[in-house]
Each structure stands twice: as C-alpha cells, then as structure tokens.
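for ur thesis appendix - Metallo-beta-lactamase domain-containing protein. copy paste whatever u need, i formatted it the way the template wanted (i think)
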Amino acid sequence: MRFVIFFALRSLAIISKKFSYNTFLINFIKLSIMFEQLEKNLFVFYSSNMGSNVYVLIGKIIALIDTSLKVNATELTDALHSIGIKESDVDLILHTHAHADHIGCTALFSKAEKRMHESDAKKVELHDARYTCSNLLNQNEYPKIDSYLKKDEIIEIKPFSLRVVYTPGHTQGSVCFYDENKRMLFSGDTLFEKACGRTDLPGGSEQQLVESLFNIQYLKFDTLLPGHGVVFKGDQQENIEAVLKTLQGKYY
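the 3d part is after this line
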C-alpha cells in the first residue's frame, strides 16, 4: 500500500528538492477522508482515491471549488449534509481546471451554475478523454459548463471576494482564485506546499507554469488552499521560490 500511494504521489506533482517525498506522503496519509472547518464560512473536503479537495464557501450563496472524483460522491454529499447543505442548496461551482479528479461530482449539483475557463471548458464540451484524464482515471463525467471564467473577473460570495487568476501550465485553462482581503489563494493543481502540478499531460506546459508561478509571486497571501493535500499557512514567497528553483533546474 505504501508503494502504491508513493507512486501515485510521484505522478501527481513536481516536488521541490527541499521538501522530501516522505513529508509529502505523510501529509496525504494523514488526510484519508476528512471534512474540516477552516473558518466560520469555509470548509474543505479532503478526498480519498486521489480526488481533489473540495472547498465549500458559505455566504449569500453557497459555492464549491472543484468537486473531486465521482467515486467520492457519497462521502462528499454526506459531508455536506453534516453541515445542513443539500445538493440543491449549492448555487455555484467554480472549477480550477478540467481534469476528471476535479469535476467528477459536478453533475450532482443540478441547480448550481457551473463555471470553468474557456480553454478547458471546450475540452469538457468535446468529451475529450485524453485532455481531462478521464481515460487514466476511469471516469466518464463531462458536466455541462454554464459560463466561462474570465481573467481578473471578481466573483462575490460574501464574505469572500474571489479574483480569477489565469495560471496556465498544468492545463491550458487552469485558474486560481485569490481573495485579497482574506489573503488566501485557492490554487488548484498550479501550486502546492513545495510542489506544483505536473506538466506532461495533454495541455500542460512547463514554460507556462513557470510564468504563472512568477505571476502568483506578486499576490499577497498567507494561506494556500491547494487542489490536493493539506492547506498550507506560511511564507508563500519562500514556497513559490522553492518550486521555481526546482522547475528552472529541471527544465532550463
């Protein structure tokens, strides 16, 4: 089992040499299936089966950031029910990108507006199994995307105010969501603690990811809420610099 998880983690991310695989592994093992309240209006569902984290933002509307794999549907809905949220209560779903491990439960929320960057949304609309990695993850879920996320668009989910930050590299349509007032970045698979998303899948680009990380450096945030793994609070400049050093050493 340790080898299987270790292999899966190696396939997920490019990890900084300053951050050992063992530490990265321990963080994942600690999670299993867990639902955690991060602050009054913010929860995170940590998925099993290598599905994505699902962030639950509760304000004037209820929004989710990503929806994990379909195989995690029961655990996700049970977690939502535990805080009094039914599937029909969810108003908005924001996708960081189109990979199957981030969109698998989206269709469960039939009343929610579903949003994604156009570059990735068009691949979902085409049922592109290679691009979405549905072929690798044995999942054939292609939710209807209602509208496209735009670069620098502001999405109000009071008390959250999220700016769409376009960060291609992991995929062509990858985005992060930045809350300047709360100093938070929901980073999808663009950035983790001392690691970043892989770039060798369809639509990936090492050069674009490096450029995206340089752009993220200008954002002022203390809390990183990644697409997989634990929420990381700490020196984000140091974190990004470590990842950039690894990438530049690997590719340039």
